[in-house]
Amino acid sequence: MPFKKPSILPGFWPALSYTILYLSLIVLIPLSAVFLKSLTTSWSHLWKVVSSPEVVASYRLSFGASLVAGMISVVIGFLVAWVLVRYQFPGKALADALVDLPFALPTAVAGIALTSLYTENGWLGRYLAPLGIKVAFTPLGVIVALTFIGLPFVVRSVQPVLADADAELEEAASSLGANRWQVFRLVIFPLVRPALLTGFALAFARALGEYGSVIFIAGNMPMKTEITPLLIVTKLEQYDYAGATAIAAVMLTASFLMLLGINALERRTRKFMVTG
Amino acid sequence: MKFTPKWTGAALALLAGSVMFAAGPVKLLNVSYDPTRELYQDINAAFAKQWKSKTGVDVEISQSHGGSGKQARSVIDGLPADVVTLGLAYDIDSIAEHAHLLPANWQTRLPKNSTPYTSTIVFLVRHGNPKHIKDWDDLVRPGVSVIAPNPKSSGGARWAYLAAWGYSLRKNNGDDGKARDFVTRLYRNVPVLDSGARGSTTTFAQRGIGDVLLDWENEAFLALNELGKDRVEVVTPSISILAEPPVAVVDRVAAKHGTTQVAQAYLEFLYTPEGQEIGARHFYRPRSTEVAARYAGRFAQVQLFTVDAVFGGWQKAQKRHFDDGGVFDQIYAPK
User: Fold this and answer.
1) Domain tally for chain A?
2) What is the distance of C-alpha A132 from the center of its chain?
3) Of A95, A100, A190, A228, which one has the greatest count of Cβ atoms within 10 A?
4) Where does A13-107 show beta strands of DSSP type E?
5) Which residues of A touch B207 (CB under 8 A)?
6) pLDDT digits (tens, 9 = 90+) for A231-247
């Protein structure tokens, strides 16, 4: 493959230079500073920090809860997008605007609100407690908070794709004898799959880095409900800059690999759609 | 341009000139911890008035507040604090150790361990004290839910942790194993560890979680005033820790700003009868015996022990209890 495919649009080199310059200034340089800072101490110390049981437990919680929250966001986000695109109902504009609210709200506010709702004497928590379901101060609470902040990413990725998809495609499918489930599985889902993946990747990435809202609802018990970003902050409080950045580097690398994987998957489904 | 002596001399002269002829008031930045916001508002107004009448110079003092450790870190990272007034000596030690902005012996430079006022750890309980919490032993009873911040990230929480440890040592003739057991049982009763003192106060007061909050005495009284006597009560245990939140001039920063003299005077003002009086009004225990006598009714009698006497100083206490892998971590380590 040649480095540059011919294009009728002028301005490839200036555009590419700006892209690289801005990516470097805004993303690459700060992130490499993380890795450099973590190298100010010995490897054995770094390894001890990033592999200590407390930190490993936090990876499990952070990655696990983010994955689960991302998946919940995909299901619910798709439903919300579907309703917003395909139906007309009074108050639709309002509902549409509500979707973005988690973007705008300071996450600490969201965290405090969710915690108040879900503690054992909160509005919702008091009905869940008799059923034996505890949300606040458990990993479940972490998932709730992460779903809250992840939802808009999925809705906003899927919505335009759904809006572009002609309803005639579905009508054609059913006129050819497909039942509703087949229409969804064979027509609608392949159309929105790349968008769902993008939404999932965004929601997942956002959830991994989320701090403000989770801190309040998690309870922050060592080994049980400490998220990785909290441990980074705790290390900083102890002036262990190298340790903090080492954990950050582990998180960064893992997130980068996962995002790379999701993007590759997305590209493949997109290609499959065009050619197949 | 090379830094030849001639150029350096010219630059210095320019610098000196700009300091001497600087128009407007002298500026000071006081970097402090969370609960002192209201205290230093009053102190600053009083000191500015006194300094003006004494020297004819206006002084303008800015305040910065946050968790004690976080504030120390900001100073290490370059927040230009002329003075620091933090929650515990260990944090100022860290500034000396990591950034060398002041000498390691800073704590000997002002009277009383550089601590113009003290505080202690008390209990805040719900109105009517439904769980009958009177002293430390009541905190480890099954079914009592205790709210305290994480000692690894909160200065106040470290005082609370050490207060509990010291109480148990006193009660059991210095038996270290029993103290460890006591503190472990205490933290087993803590359902949520907030990262700072203000966070814990919110958990307890606003969200209604827990039966008792371990808190700075001055914060507890502040919460009492804000929430009202019909919602919470302050319980002072029989024994507690003498919490010494120290103050220091940050030498290198003050020298650069040319504020060494006024910064020094500012901290000394805290020790004057007027400064002590303001402290007492904000529920900090005064060092001056006369002011203390005047405010005797405000502070409950309690036996106080110091970190130095029981734990051999902050450096030792920090290392053994709060560093990674220390006793506090072991409480939560998987069996």
Assistant:
1) 1
2) 29
3) A228
4) none
5) 115-116, 119, 122
6) 998 888 888 888 999 99
Quote the pTM value.
Answer: 0.81
Measured from the Cβ of residue A269, the count of other Cβ atoms closer than 10 Å reads 16
Q: The domain containing residue A119 runs over which residues?
A: 42-275
> Which pLDDT belongs to residue A266?
83
SS3 A34: helix
Instruction: For residue B209, give the nearest of A53, A119, A234 by CB distance.
Output: A119
CB–CB contact A238 B70 (8 Å): no
B329 touches chain A (CB under 8 A): yes
Q: What's the rounded Cα separation, in Å, for the pair A180 and A57?
A: 44
Predicted local distance difference test score (pLDDT) of residue A9: 79
Residue A147 lies in a domain: yes
A178 touches chain B (CB under 8 A): no
Q: What single letter denotes the amino acid at residue A111?
A: G
Q: What residues have CB less than 8 Å from A171, skipping those under 6 apart?
A: none
Residue with structure tokens 């979680």?
A: B209
- Would residue A10 count as lying in a domain? no
Query: What are A105-155's pLDDT values in tens digits?
Result: 888 889 989 988 998 888 999 999 899 898 988 999 999 999 999 999 999
Cα separation of B291 and B310, whole Å?
28
The two structure tokens encoding residue B70 = 């976080």
DSSP B230: T
Spatial contact of A242 and A38, defined as CB atoms under 8 Å apart: yes
Contact A16, A188 (CB under 8 A): no
Alpha carbons A215 and A116: distance in angstroms, whole number: 13
Residue A123 placed within a domain: yes
| CATH assignment at residue A133 | 1.10.3720.10
